[in-house]
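Recall the central idea of this unit: under ordinary conditions, the amino acid sequence of a chain determines the structure it adopts. In this exercise we apply that idea directly, starting from the sequence alone.
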Amino acid sequence: MKIAIACDHGGFRLKNVLKDELVRQGYDVVDFGTDSEESCDYPDFAGPAALAVASGECDKGVVVCGTGLGVSMTANKVHGIRCAVCHDVFSAKATRAHNDANMLAMGQRVIGEGLALEVLNAWLNTSYEGGRHDARIEKMMSYEKGENA
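Accordingly, the structure predicted from this sequence is:
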């Protein structure tokens, strides 16, 4: 499985921890940056990562900033992306099982490294349940097409 990963300066350290874990587990990781803690703009990195997931170049994506909010908002602007901010294991499992989230966002200033690794693994190892959730996701995604405007 190929995982896109990206961050801004506020998520640089946590991105590297998560990336190391993904590589250790044998995932093919595509790093969209940034490559330092020098101030930068999160859309420049979260956007390309989301585009890679939406296009199928990558199967899933993980984005990190100070809070997880800016990178998730950016990712969710890309057609086909369902990016969830998760700072607890329950939410990480639920968003995969019920929402089929294809991207995960976290905030380096919000979550510690140990819990972030647990959240990442819970998210990666939870399967989408389908069934009753299919119609809900279809309704959610119809807003991208302007069908509910």
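The mean pLDDT is 96.
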